[in-house]
């Protein structure tokens, strides 16, 4: 979750938006942005993807067998 937190925070700052402004543009609550940037682990994947979509990214489940391939 740390990498996600760093990615979102860095990208948000690159586009010069406050957490509040970014939440509004992403269509999520301010608390979602705060939880992501704090590295919380109890996040709703749909909400995270709304945020990541702002940067052209998406999270998806990965099969552990695929990682070992």
From TrEMBL:
It comes from the Bacteria. SUPFAM superfamilies: lambda repressor-like DNA-binding domains. Residues 8-62 form the HTH cro/C1-type domain. GO terms for molecular function: DNA binding. NCBIfam families: couple_hipB. This is Type II toxin-antitoxin system Y4mF family antitoxin. The lineage of its organism: Bacteria, Pseudomonadati, Bacteroidota, Bacteroidia, Marinilabiliales.
């Amino acid at each position: 979750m740390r990498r996600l937190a760093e990615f979102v925070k860095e990208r948000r700052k690159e586009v010069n938006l406050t957490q509040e402004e970014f939440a509004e543009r992403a269509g999520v609550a301010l608390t979602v942005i705060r939880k992501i940037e704090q590295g919380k682990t109890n996040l709703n994947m749909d909400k995270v993807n709304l945020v990541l979509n702002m940067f052209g990214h998406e999270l998806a489940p990965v099969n552990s067998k695929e990682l070992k391939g």
